[in-house]
Design goal:
8 copies of one chain form a homooctamer. The first copy, chain A, is of the alpha/beta class. Helix content of chain A is 42%, strand content 14%. Chain A contains 6 helices and 5 strands. A 5-stranded parallel beta sheet of chain A has the order 2-1-3-4-5, sandwiched between helices. The first copy, chain A, starts with 9 loop residues before the first strand and ends in a 9-residue tail after the last helix. Chains in contact: A-B, A-C, A-D, A-F, B-C, B-D, B-E, C-E, C-H, D-F, D-G, E-G, E-H, F-G, F-H, G-H.
Chain lengths: 166, 166, 166, 166, 166, 166, 166, 166
């Protein structure tokens, strides 16, 4: 099962099943924070109706944030952003042409009026989108805000100042 | 009025009114061939419902081809392609980041299953998309096919082999 | 044998034998739709006469569409487009410099007057060019048009909304 | 005065005074929504202490979101993100090298653990970052959420479907 | 008249009349060396037959070198190279997408077996292609070789070591 | 232990432990010259305080040069440069997007007033940054300057003019 | 006159007289610090002997640092670095292809063994190379080191935290 | 031994021994045509004197053409071109940053006055540079010109029009 027990606050959509290994990293972050999420494969191009239903009904289903991951001409985040006013976070997937630059530009270069918050290409972006989703939820949840501060501190503490030996 | 008298066979959609000067060049080509067209501003992101209606109803309205022009994270052609199986022609608009490369990659790098035929960035692409639309219509209209051959010959004949003097 | 039994309506040309694995994916799509095709290795640069004969005689041989695949300074689609007025579909092949961007730009940036419809770099583009060829043929063949709608629906249905487990 | 009367919830920082014309567009959006903001020039490199104070004290000053704009090796958003856990929105400024691609990559390619939500290069990104800030605040403010929905509707309604005449 | 009196040894072809201002700079270099040339507008795509005749008959007409200039999907040099074994020099023209990178890659990335010697984008490349043509002719013409050495010395001597005052 | 016995004159910082294999190559060069160094993992984003302490205290600790290596949105060198006036040498790490171009642009495109001396992406850059650090120290140490001349001579002598057989 | 009265410690070379407006900005920084410099036009390609003499004799003439500026295939800094072991600072000039990326890559991507410290494209890089030259000289000149600290402080103080009004 | 028996007419230089596998492909082409060549490792940066001697003495040693191969900030071809007026052919080597684009731009973007004829990145370019050298020598050697025509014909004949089976 892709959803955890608590009521989903974050929707994770991906353009292809092949994006799942990357997006499970986002899901894992949400689980560490005890945030409910739902996770779906939902292509802007091949399942446009499913994408439409996911985006148009998101707010009503109680979602507070959507993380949308796609590669190549990555339109999924943009489609979500066109259908709802809740925050949309875009994660460009790796690709062959210029190392994912196609997906990055397709996600970030949104026109005035319909924002997509874009993160780094691939795994780094997936983790960061999840952490950013937490920071949005934390802005009205002091307990979660504290958890996020603690997570950050732990992350800092884990970085050994001594590099591994040659 | 943006439409000519004959029944529209080609739909021209553009993501922003600022794309009109470029897309009028496409319209002019269609007029030279006496092909009816309709022309609309229709943003994938800011008017998603209008885009949906345009694309989903295209075939029923009698359109045989859609030319979709957009800049930046150019999703309009992709959205059209997701909604209908008639041929979609994409024209990337000029932009600041890498001279329109954002729009080019966002238009051409479509995933397997949902094709968008992409043309050059800007004016060249607009004219060529229109000529390509003519070639599609010509594939079942011998008279139009002949017109296209004549147009090509005239175009060739017009190119003076002597360069202008220094 | 590279051709199927029915009369070829689509010509598939590729600049090098090494492009065959990619272009067989295009051929397979045409076979699924029962569309006859011919398939040739034909380099714009190393076999210019063969390219010329292929392109100049295409229409007379009954071809309705040509799919041309090439890498690097990918001129094959442009050469075809200069020799005939039937629709030319270009598929840029993967390459080392910028991940195929050389082939993409060489294919898509055609000057005003001679259109090449360009698709994504590599396998995605090969499949999509074939589907696009089907859509052109379908524009005057209602039965084929219905097949294409059915193919699209089946494609949509095959996409499981549940991502594979982590 | 750069701040409006209401208590600032959004901080706008920019790396250089020359970024002000772009960032005033972000400020204007916040004013339309009646959201208090503070706006400062604050270079990651030339005024690191000011940047540190701005970022480290942001949450305590009551800021809920920071919008950070910078060009070239655009580090300002990253610096903010390293100093606080509230959401940081990055706006890359136009530049000469590859049309702002330097600032885009410097802003978006953040390593795992420290997210920066990145928007389009230049004016489009500035407006969208502000709208995204509104969407974050709206996630715990139903009245603001409604305003955002209304703004979106008005924006959609304003887009005339008829392109300007040639 | 575009040709000078002496028997043409160098052919200058350009894809469009708009390339003439750039290519006149190449012609001027040849004139300085007293080398006969012919100069034609001859598009690979819009006048393929003219291009074919120019290239296929070049050697017979007495041409020793061809300089081919084109922009965008710059195929002209490649077409020439496919039709003759005399040296082909390619000059990519400026363009919007990535500042002429499209023409550069379309000219230089020739496949194994059909070489095109490529020079810098725009004016620098035009002058250098002409100088390179001179160096080819000079390889069997000691007098011309001496002229080239003198030209180089004069060029070196003309570069004042003192920069212009601020 | 990452430091050698002599008093550290050069600080090597890297954004992630995964950069260590590359930066050990820099350390090895310093050891060949008998130059003391200290080497730390110190992320601009995940350990900003550690980065601040390293940079702000560098001069006082006796460091004469800092070599800072980072990937992606590589801010570490810029952060160091903002905190001290001793020379900062930046080494961009390899990455997926455009082969490290993200790190290169993030390191080199520093705004007026805060210089970072940037070297090639990856191993070449690491070795060269170390050699450059030696050249800085050598500018007031004639013995070291002589060692550097000898090193260069030995390097030259080691390059066999005969290529390895096919 | 391009040199000031004091003994030159810094050499400024540029590949073309057209680079002078940019490099005068570097000279001005050195003048503010009272550092003697010499300034020459000296092309790696068109005046190779002058370049050789400049580089090979630099150390003997008392130069401690060389700043080398060039555009396009910017080899001047690399040539200097091949001829001397004193620190070489490279400044890539603006260009058309990808906004100076050609010069940036030609300057920074030096092979292992011959370092060139590279700065931002154009004016920013010119000023920063000069400041970096000061930092090198300051590493054995406490008075100059103090001046540099003061300069930095003044620079910081000059940045008004209030952006200019809209 | 890297040289064949006949008097060398072509010089092949490469910046690093690691370029040898690629440049042996060029040598092999020359051998097929019975053209004498010499082949040396000769770095513009690490063995500048050897490079100088190679280039400055080339014409006197009887060389008619030089093929220069290098990677990264590929200056070797430019250095050769600055030292002699015989034709210089540049071959950019593969690299990590943008797939050899650094070497391509460093080789091709030569300033007005000092031409380098540039070929494709890597193996294709190496073979083509050799074929181009043959075409230069053939321009005053009818027998060699005929051999080149035959080689081209054989190459064309070898390309099977049937693609390999799937």
């Amino acid at each position: 099962m892709n959803e955890n027990q608590t009521k989903p606050l974050v929707g994770i959509v991906m353009g292809s099943a092949s994006d799942a290994p990357t997006m499970h990293k986002a899901a894992q972050v949400l689980e560490e924070f005890g945030i409910g999420y739902e996770m779906k494969v939902c292509s802007a191009h091949r399942t446009p109706q499913r994408a439409h239903e996911f985006g148009a009904g998101a707010q009503e289903r109680g979602l507070k944030v959507i993380i949308a991951a796609a590669g190549m001409a990555a339109h999924l985040a943009g489609v979500m952003a066109s259908l709802t006013t809740i925050p949309i976070l875009g994660v460009p997937m790796d690709g062959k042409v210029m190392g994912g630059l196609d997906a990055l530009l397709s996600t970030v270069q949104m026109p005035k009026g319909i924002p997509v918050a874009t993160f780094a290409v691939g795994n780094h972006g997936a983790v960061n989108a999840a952490l950013f989703a937490v920071s949005i939820l934390a802005s009205s949840d002091p307990q979660l805000a504290q958890k996020l501060v603690d997570y950050r501190k732990a992350q800092t503490a884990m970085i050994d100042e001594n590099p591994p030996a040659a």
